[in-house]
């Protein structure tokens, strides 16, 4: 682990990603201290004002401070991103491992169920799940998690099937290692590279899906801020006040960019072959 | 010799792989990778299985260890029938029989250090506490000619020969009785091969090991083995003590194989008659009737197409499956 942090510090790109995410996390945790105003406080005299010293990122159509809303929105976006992706990734990992390692009938059943999920467009599926469970932040996260599960399952399954062909798996069997230990010690460490990359991609996808759901009124409920909702609210006003769309978009891009940088370098850091 | 104790008895072992095809994935036929072979392996000897690619020698090794579940037949290890044992309890028997693989590049998990690779077998079979296991790994790496500073490295940091030493250490740390060496030196270059072979010989004496040596390299086999079995198309063609087999091969296939060994002695070369076989190895899913070798055999006659030759003891301790010796 000491070795790992050492290498992360040496890897400049990964470090940038890590620091960026760290900043976003700090924003989310200390939102009440950092934000100058409440996220739903309306300044009726300052509707649609551009960035100024009073309102760092300007105000929106209700006169709310965009900077404060972005800071509070970090809470929602990070929560949705991390929890939804965890649900999808852990579910996908379990199903993918079972499918890929044991194959046979169970594999067929799992993969056909995943195909059904795949057949629906992401948003439609998420919408259906939220409609069934009822609109709330928790249900949004569950819905996004389920939507992402088939991608993870497929990815893990195919990676497992490739790794399984290696002789070190037969070697472990010949030694008498229990199947559960073969999966944990020999297969999982060797499928981590594509898995981690997929997690970073899914994080950005989750933040965007949450935005779309919020826009449709099924995600975060107004007036609570979320980056995606701000983006969608601002669509109508972007000609008069480009700052209303620019800053939330920049927040999303920044976070996703940092996650991708970190993901890339994590993948390399976890591979002993690339160790100097 | 035959009074020596038999460690492993293989009786009528068969391994057929189904060929599935069509929309419904129905079994359309079988590849008879191993078709009714029998042999026994004696304590502390090196028993070699030779044959060309695809003759089923590796499958035989893996079927004995039930890495491929045998289709039929019995495998008796110290009198106990391995085929009757349930899969979960067979796991515990594995510590007595180990397999060393051909390719040292793919047979070691790239994400485990040498120490972890060596400790895993001990911890799996609960033969040592983690602390004892660590001590044993130190002892074992030195036995196979590596040093303790290698323990914290990953497999990709080693050369092919060193990796094969790690594989050997990993298999032998369990102190098995039987070791199956599946083309264990074929992937290495010649100078490294001899080092590894000497190491294997030395460890065999030290740990009282019984080897089943699977190879296609007749020179290596001659150098290493006590007895040799020659396989062709899933069947045992001839089995004898090494000297008897090399000096006095009975089966036409063995004769052809031995005549193909390159010689560095020019005089010997002149005297030697090179038997060149016609055609290719038949498709194992559609073997010829009668003797599997008859299509390429220079001595083939009518009876070869009609009857499968019996596997008989033509001379003392010299078994052969050929109609020439079964009048």
Automatic annotation (TrEMBL), chain A:
InterPro entries noted in UniProt: BP-dependent_transpt_permease, MetI-like, MetI-like_sf, OppC_N
Residue stretches spanning the membrane: 12-35, 78-102, 114-134, 140-156, 195-220, 240-263
Parts forming coiled coils: none
PROSITE patterns found in the cross-reference section: ABC_TM1 (PS50928)
SUPFAM superfamilies: MetI-like
GO cellular component: plasma membrane
Domain ABC transmembrane type-1, chain residue ranges per copy: 74-263
A Pfam family hit: OppC_N
Biological process (GO), any one: transmembrane transport
Sorted UniProt keywords: Cell membrane, Membrane, Transmembrane, Transmembrane helix, Transport
Membrane topology: Multi-pass membrane protein
Subcellular location: Cell membrane
Gene3D superfamilies xrefs: MetI-like
Family indicated by similarity: Belongs to the binding-protein-dependent transport system permease family.
Protein's name in the database: Peptide/nickel transport system permease protein/oligopeptide transport system permease protein
Species assigned in the record: Tenuibacillus multivorans
From TrEMBL, chain B:
A GO term for molecular function: ATP binding
Gene Ontology biological process: peptide transport; transmembrane transport
Superkingdom of the organism of origin: Bacteria
Keyword vocabulary terms for this entry: ATP-binding, Nucleotide-binding, Transport
Limits of the ABC transporter domain: 8-258
Gene3D superfamilies named in the record: P-loop containing nucleotide triphosphate hydrolases
Keyword Transport: yes
Family per similarity comment: Belongs to the ABC transporter superfamily.
Protein name: Peptide/nickel transport system ATP-binding protein/oligopeptide transport system ATP-binding protein
Species this chain originates from: Tenuibacillus multivorans
């Amino acid at each position: 682990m000491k070795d790992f942090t050492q290498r992360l510090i040496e890897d400049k790109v990964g470090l940038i990603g890590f620091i960026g995410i760290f900043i976003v996390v700090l924003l989310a945790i200390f939102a009440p201290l950092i934000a100058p105003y409440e996220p739903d406080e309306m300044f009726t005299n300052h509707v649609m004002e551009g960035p100024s010293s009073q309102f760092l990122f300007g105000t929106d159509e209700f006169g709310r401070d965009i900077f404060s809303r972005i800071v509070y929105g970090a809470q929602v976006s990070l929560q949705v991103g991390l929890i939804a992706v965890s649900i999808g990734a852990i579910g996908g990992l379990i199903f993918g491992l079972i499918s890929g390692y044991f194959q046979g009938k169970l594999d067929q059943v799992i993969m056909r169920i995943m195909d059904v999920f795949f057949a629906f467009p992401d948003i439609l599926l998420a919408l259906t799940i939220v409609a069934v469970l009822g609109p709330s932040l928790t249900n949004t996260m569950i819905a996004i998690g389920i939507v992402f599960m088939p991608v993870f399952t497929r990815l893990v399954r195919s990676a497992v099937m490739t790794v399984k062909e290696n002789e070190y798996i037969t070697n472990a069997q010949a030694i008498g290692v229990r199947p559960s230990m073969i999966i944990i010690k020999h297969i999982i460490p060797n499928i981590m590279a594509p898995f981690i990359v997929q997690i970073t991609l899914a994080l950005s996808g989750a933040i965007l899906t949450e935005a779309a759901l919020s826009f449709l009124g099924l995600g975060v409920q107004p007036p609570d801020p979320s980056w995606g909702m701000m983006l969608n609210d601002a669509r109508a006003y972007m000609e008069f006040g480009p700052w209303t769309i620019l800053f939330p978009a920049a927040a999303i891009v920044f976070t996703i960019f940092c996650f991708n940088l970190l993901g890339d370098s994590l993948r390399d850091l976890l591979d002993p072959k690339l160790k100097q | 010799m035959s009074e020596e104790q038999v460690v492993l008895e293989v009786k009528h072992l068969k391994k057929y792989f189904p060929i599935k095809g069509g929309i419904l994935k129905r079994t359309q036929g079988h590849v008879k990778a191993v078709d009714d072979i029998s042999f026994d392996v004696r304590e502390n000897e090196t028993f070699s299985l030779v044959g060309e690619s695809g003759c089923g020698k590796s499958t035989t090794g893996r079927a004995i260890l039930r890495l491929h579940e045998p289709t039929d037949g019995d495998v008796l290890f110290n009198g106990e029938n391995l085929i009757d044992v349930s899969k979960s309890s067979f796991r515990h028997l594995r510590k007595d029989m180990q397999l060393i693989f051909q390719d040292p590049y793919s047979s070691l998990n790239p994400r485990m250090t040498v120490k972890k690779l060596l400790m895993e077998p001990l911890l799996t079979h609960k033969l040592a506490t983690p602390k004892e296991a660590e001590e044993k790994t130190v002892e074992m790496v030195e036995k196979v000619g590596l040093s303790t500073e290698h323990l914290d490295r990953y497999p990709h940091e080693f050369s092919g020969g060193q990796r094969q030493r790690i594989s050997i250490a990993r298999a032998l740390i369990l102190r098995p009785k039987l070791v199956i060496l599946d083309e264990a030196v074929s992937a290495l270059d010649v100078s490294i091969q001899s080092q590894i072979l000497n190491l294997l010989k030395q460890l065999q004496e030290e740990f009282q090991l019984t080897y089943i040596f699977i190879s296609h390299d007749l020179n290596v086999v001659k150098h290493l083995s006590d007895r040799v079995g020659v396989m062709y198309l899933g069947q045992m063609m001839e089995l004898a003590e090494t000297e008897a087999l090399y000096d006095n091969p009975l089966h036409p296939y063995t004769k052809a194989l031995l005549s193909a060994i390159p010689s560095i002695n020019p005089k010997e070369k002149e005297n030697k008659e090179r038997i060149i076989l016609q055609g290719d190895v038949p498709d194992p899913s559609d073997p010829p009737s009668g003797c599997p070798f008859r299509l390429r055999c220079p001595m083939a006659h009518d009876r070869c197409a009609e009857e499968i030759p019996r596997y008989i003891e033509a001379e003392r301790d010299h078994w052969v499956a050929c109609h020439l010796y079964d009048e």
